């Protein structure tokens, strides 16, 4: 990265726009930044660092305190940096958080931080976070790495030199892109864990299968299985022995079961034959019993036959009986109808007499009807005049009412106009008062914005500080857990190493015990064995060794996980600490030094209480704003009311004039109508001058005339209807009487025919007929019952004869003794089956289990072979080796060696050959991973020592050499990070004259390679040796900068 142009505005001591054009240097790639203390030399570096990363070059500077105190309130603070990288140009612009004057009213509001990045292809990235991510991607390093290898700020140039292995690993990983080596380590370790878990899982399954083995009475195998450490070879042999014994027992039981099955069949066949004999004898006895029962019922069925005969004879009379009863019922019905008709004839005879009397009465009212009709004609002649009279009278009343109403309206409207004018004056006064609220609103808004910024800062600070405390506590708990697991880890490791050593030593004795003279040794091939190794007692088995290895790996995995969690938590705590420091500075600025008072006491409680106080202030201010808003709404309403009221007063004045004119016109109409109605009153009597009264009288006379006519007509119609009905009823009565007489003759004839038939059928009389009478269903049922009885006698007699022949010469036999014998055989058979099932189930289970155990043994063996390879690779690559160095760190160490070699070229020159940097290869104490530690070799003493023991001047030379060496190595790798610039702030003052000359010569050599070198120093010799100077000139209005070439 090489800067092309830097633009600062209201930044640090620079009040206005300050442009530093680095292209003015032309081919001069080394320049000195010169000026008095406090003029703004370091601000140049701060601006470059802020433009790239949003922070000053010195981490102690507050990013929100970068705004110039010399700048006017209207001037915006920003930094703009144009730079080139690998032949591409970029432009980044940043605006820090800063106060801005409000566009309306007094006071300030805060403008948030902003960032913009224009890429080489012209695309723009905006947003603080996105720009920071893109800058890191383009440069390949972050802000912390930038301060260690590109820009060496005052007081921080020793950081890369004195960093520990872990810090250098993070820096170098990003620079040289070795993340894939770290990923490779993780892949190996994950694979190791996966295989280990697979082995543990399969082993658990194998143990489960072992526990499933049915050992029965094999106490020896039961003891082997119950042991903590299982010997699977012994277990398999024991299972095979149980299976062999069970196979023999199964064959013996099968033979016994087959024999007893034959005996059971023989007894069952004998029982079947004897049961058949007993069945025949029992069948004969049953048929004899049934035959006797049927013979006993013979007399009963003879009576049923006689009843069936008489019932069939009576059935011939039933039809005649039915005809007789139907006629008799029909006669009764017609007789009832005749009686009803006779009663109605008598009733209508009386009605006819009454209707004749009523008709004569109505015909006698003819004179009354004529008189009523004449009255109606006279009254109808008055109707039109009375209607006209009433309309005129009503119109006068209406006009008088309107006159009274207009008088009231005129008076009311006059009062309203007067009241509205008073209301108008009051509203004008209130409107003037409310206009004053707008000024107060702007003041409160400014206070609310200021307080809300403080509230947000306190809320964020509380969140981060609380999280920080929680993480500190978590870290403490992890440390306690780590101490416990570390102790267990060391104990298990020692145990494993001793056991492994014994196992390896014991292998020689195991091989030697089978050696024979003349037979080649499987190790060395010799046929002579003068001093074979002796067997060592207590040599562990390979399974026992592997088990301990599993335990060790499990504990190591737990330990490494806790260690990683502690490391991750350290990073989080450090990051939180930086954020908390930023917020602390903000809160000190807004709340004052009271923060320091509570910092170590109870800062969270203070922030909580103070936050609530400020939040309450904000709420109160917002309530005032609400009231002001309400007043503004009220002001608008008053304004609208004023306009509306003025318009209303104007309209009411016009309406008042109109009402006065209408009153005069209406009064003249009343006088005209009153003279017209006097003429009508002379013609019509007073009682008929009302239309309702006249119409009511006419209606009454019309109703009376209508009633007289209707009563006459009604009397005539009633007489005609009743007389016609009477004549019809008399005719119907005569006809029904004649029909009854005919029916009586038919009934007598049917009765004679029925009695005659009863005698012909052999029955005494009608009562005898009723006694033997049966329905057709009853006759059918009786007939079927008799036939069933006769058929049953024939069948039972036939079966009885057959049963007698079948049981001839046979005797009944008792089967209980034979069945007892069969029961004993069955019990014996069931016992054998139970024993057989137990043996068969055990045999089947053990055969399947043995097969599964052997299968799992093979699976575990395969996994263990894989684990030996992968586990060893994972252990070594992750730093669990004699050198305590990971695979990635091993690669980085190679890069570091090249960096040190490049750095030593310059360091040797600057120190006159006295000092050389070297990578520390000697192992340190404890289990900490190493490989990137740095030490310095002193040729004067012939000894190496830690770089932290160097003096200030020596440290500066070593730091400068290391930074330049790092840049050389990075440049040498294709596709690597391009470091074309180095900035150095102070440090030269610690050098003696000779060292200063050497340092300057080294820096001058850099410009020959095209690298830009910027130096801040007060050392006069540098000004004499470097001809390109960026002069910083302080003034009362702020600093200015210019190149002097």
From TrEMBL:
Any GO MF annotation of the entry: ATP hydrolysis activity
Any idea where the Rad50/SbcC-type AAA domain is?
5-203
- Biological process, per Gene Ontology: double-strand break repair
Keyword match Nuclease: yes
Q: Which residues form a coiled coil?
A: 243-318, 345-416, 611-866
Q: Please list every transmembrane segment annotated in the UniProt record, as residue ranges.
A: none
Hydrolase as UniProt keyword: yes
- SUPFAM superfamilies in the cross-refs: P-loop containing nucleoside triphosphate hydrolases
UniProt keyword list: Coiled coil, Exonuclease, Hydrolase, Nuclease
Question: What PANTHER family does the record point to?
Answer: ABC TRANSPORTER ABCH.3 (PTHR32114:SF2)
| Assembly and oligomerization | Heterodimer of SbcC and SbcD.
Family, per the entry?
A: Belongs to the SMC family. SbcC subfamily.
Q: Would you tell me the protein name for this molecule? A: Nuclease SbcCD subunit C
Q: What is the lineage of its organism?
A: Bacteria, Bacillati, Bacillota, Clostridia, Eubacteriales
């Amino acid at each position: 990265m090489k800067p092309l142009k830097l633009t600062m505005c209201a930044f640090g001591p620079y009040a206005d726009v300050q442009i530093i054009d680095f292209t003015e240097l032309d081919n001069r790639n080394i320049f000195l930044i010169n000026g008095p203390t406090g003029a703004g030399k370091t601000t140049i570096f701060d601006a470059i660092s802020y433009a790239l990363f949003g922070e000053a070059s010195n981490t102690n500077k507050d990013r929100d305190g970068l705004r110039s105190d010399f700048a006017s309130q209207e001037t915006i603070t920003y930094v703009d940096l144009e730079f080139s990288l690998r032949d591409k140009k970029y432009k980044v612009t940043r605006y820090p958080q800063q106060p801005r004057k409000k566009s309306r009213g007094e006071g300030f509001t805060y403008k948030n931080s902003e960032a913009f990045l224009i890429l080489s292809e012209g695309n723009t990235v905006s947003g603080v976070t996105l720009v920071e991510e893109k800058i890191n991607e383009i440069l390949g390093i972050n802000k912390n790495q930038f301060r260690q290898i590109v820009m060496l700020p005052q007081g921080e140039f020793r950081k890369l030199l004195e960093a520990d292995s872990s810090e250098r690993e993070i820096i170098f990983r990003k620079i040289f892109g070795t993340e894939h080596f770290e990923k490779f380590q993780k892949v190996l370790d994950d694979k190791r864990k996966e295989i280990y878990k697979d082995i543990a899982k399969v082993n658990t399954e194998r143990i489960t299968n072992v526990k499933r083995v049915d050992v029965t009475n094999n106490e020896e195998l039961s003891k082997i299985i119950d042991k903590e450490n299982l010997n699977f070879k012994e277990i398999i042999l024991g299972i095979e022995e149980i299976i062999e014994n069970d196979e023999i027992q199964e064959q013996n039981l099968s033979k016994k079961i087959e024999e007893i099955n034959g005996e059971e069949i023989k007894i069952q066949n004998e029982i079947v034959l004897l049961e058949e004999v007993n069945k025949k004898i029992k069948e004969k006895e049953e048929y004899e019993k049934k035959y006797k029962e049927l013979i006993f019922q013979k007399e009963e069925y003879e009576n049923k036959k006689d009843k069936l005969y008489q019932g069939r004879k009576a059935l011939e009379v039933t039809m005649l009986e039915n005809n007789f009863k139907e006629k008799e019922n029909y006669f009764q019905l017609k007789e009832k109808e005749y009686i009803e008709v006779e009663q109605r004839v008598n009733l209508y005879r009386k009605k006819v007499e009454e209707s004749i009397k009523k008709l004569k009465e109505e015909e006698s009212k003819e004179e009354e009807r004529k008189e009523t009709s004449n009255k109606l004609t006279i009254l109808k002649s008055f109707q039109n005049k009375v209607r006209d009279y009433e309309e005129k009278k009503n119109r006068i009343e209406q006009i008088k009412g309107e006159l009274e109403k207009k008088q009231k309206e005129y008076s009311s409207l006059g009062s309203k106009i007067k009241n509205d004018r008073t209301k108008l004056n009051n509203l004008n006064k209130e409107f003037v008062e409310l206009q004053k609220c707008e000024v107060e609103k702007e003041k409160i808004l400014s206070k609310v914005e200021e307080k809300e910024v403080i509230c947000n800062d306190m809320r964020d600070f509380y969140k981060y500080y609380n999280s920080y405390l929680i993480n500190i506590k978590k870290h403490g708990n992890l440390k306690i857990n780590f101490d416990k697991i570390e102790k267990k880890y060391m104990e298990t490791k020692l145990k494993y190493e001793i056991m492994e050593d014994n196992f390896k030593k014991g292998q020689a004795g195991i091989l030697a015990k089978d050696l024979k003279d003349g037979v080649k040794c499987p190790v060395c091939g010799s046929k002579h064995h003068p001093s074979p190794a002796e067997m060592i007692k207590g040599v562990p088995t390979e399974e026992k060794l592997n088990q301990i290895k599993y335990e060790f790996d499990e504990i190591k995995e737990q330990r490494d996980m806790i260690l990683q969690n502690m490391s991750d938590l350290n990073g989080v705590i450090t990051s939180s600490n930086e954020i908390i420091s930023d917020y602390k500075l903000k809160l000190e600025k807004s709340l004052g030094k009271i923060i320091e008072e509570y910092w170590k006491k109870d800062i969270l409680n203070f922030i909580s209480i103070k936050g609530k106080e400020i939040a309450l202030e904000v709420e109160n201010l917002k309530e005032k704003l609400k009231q002001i808003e309400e007043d503004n709404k009220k002001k608008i309403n008053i304004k609208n009311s004023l306009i509306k009221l003025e318009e209303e007063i104007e309209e009411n004045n016009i309406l008042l004039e109109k009402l006065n004119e209408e009153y005069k016109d209406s009064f003249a109409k009343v006088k005209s109508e009153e003279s017209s109605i006097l003429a009508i009153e002379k013609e019509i009597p007073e009682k008929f001058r009302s239309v309702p009264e006249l119409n009511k009288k006419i209606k009454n006379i019309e109703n009376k005339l209508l009633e007289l006519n209707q009563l006459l007509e009604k009397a005539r119609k009633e007489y005609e209807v009743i007389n016609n009905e009477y004549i019809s009823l008399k005719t119907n009565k005569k006809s029904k009487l004649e029909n009854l007489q005919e029916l009586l003759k038919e009934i007598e004839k049917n009765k004679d025919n029925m009695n005659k038939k009863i005698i012909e059928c052999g029955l005494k009389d009608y009562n005898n007929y009723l006694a033997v009478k049966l329905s057709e269903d009853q006759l059918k049922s009786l007939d079927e019952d008799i036939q069933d009885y006769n058929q049953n006698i024939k069948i039972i007699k036939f079966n009885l004869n057959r049963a007698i022949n079948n049981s001839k010469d046979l005797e009944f036999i008792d089967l209980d003794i034979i069945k007892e014998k069969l029961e004993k055989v069955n019990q014996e058979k069931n016992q054998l089956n139970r024993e057989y099932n137990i043996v068969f189930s055990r045999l089947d289970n053990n055969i399947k289990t043995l097969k599964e155990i052997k299968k799992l043994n093979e699976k575990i063996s395969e996994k263990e072979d894989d684990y030996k390879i992968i586990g060893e690779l994972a252990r070594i690559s992750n730093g669990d080796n004699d050198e305590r160095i990971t695979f990635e760190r091993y690669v980085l160490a190679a890069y570091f060696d090249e960096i040190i070699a490049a750095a030593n070229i310059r360091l040797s020159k600057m120190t006159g050959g006295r000092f050389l940097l070297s990578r520390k290869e000697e192992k340190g104490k404890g289990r900490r991973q190493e490989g990137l530690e740095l030490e310095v070799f002193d040729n004067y003493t012939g000894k190496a020592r830690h770089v932290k023991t160097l003096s200030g001047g020596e440290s500066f030379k070593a730091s400068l050499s290391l930074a330049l060496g790092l840049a050389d190595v990075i440049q040498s790798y294709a596709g690597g990070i391009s470091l074309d610039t180095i900035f150095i702030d102070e440090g030269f003052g610690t050098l003696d004259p000779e060292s200063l000359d050497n340092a300057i010569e080294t820096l001058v050599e850099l410009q020959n390679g095209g690298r830009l070198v910027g130096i801040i120093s007060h050392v006069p010799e540098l000004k004499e040796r470097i001809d390109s100077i960026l002069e910083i000139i302080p003034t009362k209005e702020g600093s200015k900068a210019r190149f002097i070439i």
